[in-house]
Specification:
Layout (H helix, E strand, L loop, with lengths): L1 E3 L2 H13 L4 E6 L5 H10 L5 E6 L19 H10 L4 E3 L23 H4 L3 H16 L3 E5 L3 H13 L5 E5 L19 H22 L5 H11 L4 E9 L13 E9 L2 E8 L3
The structure holds adenosine monophosphate.
Amino acid sequence: MRTESDWRAVQEEALQRRARGERVGFVPTMGFLHRGHTSLFALARPRCDWLVASIFVNPLQFGPTEDLGRYPRDPEGDAAKARAEGVDLLFTPTTLYHRDHSTRVIVDQVSDGLCGASRPTHFEGVATVVARLFGVVQPHVAVFGEKDYQQLQLIRRMTRDLALPIEVIGGPLVRDADGLALSSRNAYLSEEQRTRALSLHQALDDMAEAVAAGTRDAADLLEIGRRRIHADRLDYLEIRDATDLRPLNQVDGPARGFVAATYGGTRLIDNRSLSS
Ligand code: AMP
């Protein structure tokens, strides 16, 4: 595995490999890698000849009061994990944008509500950086995790709307043994906060069980979920269509439950399918 921080060198190699008929795979991350990330590398590996993973803590997707400055980092650990999972090139740009970068990518509808409501400029930052990373890495196939389900649907929509010839694949959400969704931000949690944070996936599980038992009304399902959650602040608990993310009053087809809550200064998200 090679590590490269210069985006021009990465783009040049990607174009050369494409010209030789190689298939390029890509997994973008913000680093501090865990099994959620490495599961995406494993999904991408057999689907390409040359696998690029990026580590870039993108300032555009952080709000002014968020954790950009203290986002956890572990460059050596990240490199070892990426190598072990068969990544060919670890792209670690320090700068990715021109000084006068002036393009923003806005994806309507799927970015409305959920994390788009509480993090107003977040998805614009995500779509803009992913569009730029796609331009640099020139992937045939890119893999994103269902942990950030709204982000995954946004990337799918952007790729479709801009006719980008890239296959976007979603990887299942990976959990710890106790059910907590793996996240780099779990490193911020105290033991007591972590114990209470288990209530997020338990609430989603309760809702899925109720759907399986025949409850269809979203308000009833949300009440079941809300009863379970112990958080310092519940940001949202919602039920949405699994594809276009429109809010649902009834669970009749593919639906997902979404939750976001804070524990101390740490904001966690989780989601799961509610369809039986
Ligand atoms: P991040 O480093 O948090 O920006 O995440 C990079 C990619 O890894 C995104 O596509 C995430 O959705 C994905 N990811 C993060 N945590 C998990 C997880 N627990 N399970 C599956 N994918 C994940």
